[in-house]
């Protein structure tokens, strides 16, 4: 039975101490997981509850003024 490697170095030549530190950090992050009771944050762009902008500018330079704060 051959197990897949946990980490694989694809560039460089780390020494034993660097590999041990990297392995410890990755293992700690994997064990911690996501905090209980919290859902991942959704970006404002993907949020369907976010209201659409009202009153977009019209006219020949509308594209230019659409990025400016109101």
From TrEMBL:
<protein>
    <recommendedName>
        <fullName>Acyl-CoA carboxylase subunit epsilon</fullName>
    </recommendedName>
</protein>
<dbReference type="Pfam" id="PF13822">
    <property type="entry name" value="ACC_epsilon"/>
</dbReference>
<feature type="region of interest" description="Disordered">
    <location>
        <begin position="32"/>
        <end position="70"/>
    </location>
</feature>
<dbReference type="InterPro" id="IPR032716">
    <property type="entry name" value="ACC_epsilon"/>
</dbReference>
